[in-house]
Amino acid sequence: MGNETITVYDIAREAGVSPATVSRVLTGNAKVSEDKRCRVQNIIKKYDFEPNSIARSLSKQESKTIGMIVPDIRNPFYSTLFIECEMEAIQFGYNMILCNTINEIASEGGQLRNMMEKRVDAIIQVGGSVDEVAPDPQYIELVDKVSKKIPTVIAGELEGANVYRIISETTHGMYDLMAYLSGLGHKEIAFIGGRASVIPTLRKRQALTQFLKEQNIFLRPEFLIDTEYSIEGGYEAARKLLKLDHLPTAIIAVNESVAMGIVRALGEKKLRVPEDISIVGYDDTFYSEMISPPLTCISYNLKSYAQMIMETIIQIINKEDTEKIKYVPTYLAVRSSCKELRES
Prior knowledge:
Layout: H1 8-15, H2 19-27, H3 34-47, H4 54-58, E1 65-70, H5 76-91, E2 95-100, H6 108-117, E3 122-126, H7 137-147, E4 152-155, E5 164-168, H8 170-183, E6 189-192, H9 199-214, E7 224-225, H10 231-241, E8 250-253, H11 256-268, E9 278-283, H12 287-290, E10 296-299, H13 302-317, E11 325-328, E12 331-333
Parallel strand pairs: 1-2, 1-3, 3-4, 4-5, 5-11, 6-7, 6-8, 8-9, 9-10
Antiparallel strand pairs: 10-12
Helix pairs in contact: 1-2, 1-3, 5-13, 6-7, 8-9, 10-11
């Protein structure tokens, strides 16, 4: 094999490492163990492989750009996931561009067409239509049309579309969360945030309801409150909850932004977390450490999420076999926002 024919995949195979590791050695953008670095460098030297060959070896496309569509980059879940994807993309020799729909689902079609015009090598979509229980059939048709020309990965479900999907295990996460709260003695539990027309929110509510049913615990209808996925939404919903004569001992927030709004509303009523009411949530971004006290939550492990997305993108670009649907596991990150109840 000469330098003109060898690729990073050849180097990775001979060195017994992943293509991403070879990319990291070539670019110097991330830490690699000394053993792996030496093996890769020896093979690079053996074939006189030059670092600038990486762009040609990873893909036959020339833009070296991956586009990502999100509903609102101000949401820490989306901003963190984008950054993690961008860091992974760099390891593979790609750049990222961001399209922000500002929560306007109607603009997603235009963003997809914009990606096509920019001739990106792949598209990632997170949130918006891909999470809707009943997405627009015309949008599904457009996504299918685009995916035939450009590798497309959905971080969500988009029922009816023939695309690659990365789905987080929301239901398992809720069961872990409820097992934790139940173990602390909580039975009066409220769920604040989101809409039942959004698949992840619907799955969370279904899992919550099923868990409580299995434990023979009654779920008060007034403890389920719809709201926007924002700090203000959490604040307004919590104010509504606090007007009830009977309050829950624990509140599940649909995400960290909503949790921050809840904490603010509780503080105005001189209610303390967790002394008076325990709070848990979802996402586990930097917001979880900013909330006082730090928030116990279900973590999507956004770094692993991004790695799975990017590895899938690269596999599709290189026409490698890969699963059409992959699942990202969740785990419970326990902090100090919950209190154990004592039996009276």
